[in-house]
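Researcher: Go.
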Amino acid sequence: MGSRAALRTKHQSPQATAAEAAGLRWLRVPGGPPIPRVHSSDGGALVIDEIPHGTPNLQAAVIFGRRLAALHLAGAPAFGAPPPGGPREATIGTAPMINEPAPSWPEWFASQRIQPYARMAGIDLDEVCARIDSLAGPAEPPARLHGDLWSGNVLWGADDQVWLIDPAAHGGHRESDLAMLQLFGCPFLDHVLGAYQEVAPLADGWRERVKLHQLFPLLVHAVLFGGGYRSEAIAAGRAALRG
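Model: Structure:
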């Protein structure tokens, strides 16, 4: 008889558990990055596959870039749309995160991803929000986002695959996932981005929009941890205005 895969149990609030379980299920798409299977999500206990850790390598990075593009291209019903079965009131880390569908990305990003957290952090980003339409770049359809794609949630597995864990999944702009990946670093990042663009080329000017998309994770960190993250968010806002 074959041995059973090891399981991991994560304890959190019932609401956060429901959001994460729905996100993990939604992110499992054909051709996308591997995602741990949800075995149960009762109350505040989320039981998923335990993924053995491996070592980052170039081949896995290239495959990951292509698979991340496939995930984004799977799409979402709207910007701000929660995963099917996921709650409107979700979380990112331990911070609250509202998933409320909106007709356009600039409107949604300003009202739901910049303004609430800027207010909590005591940061004035009104000019960024006022100019969001001109800063946003070409219109794109909603992408299926991991939503919290920092390096700690990109797991290099012992099977030489790159797994995604701990999502804050929602419909959004694909440049947001890529900007967060760049914010906190990722092994072989240039190769990941290059392979991504082979499958889903980014719109002109995407590099100039990185700071705009990084505002959300920086503001979340400013709310949760304060300190240097607050000054980083202010600097990112200024950089976004310069384009």
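Model: The mean pLDDT is 96.
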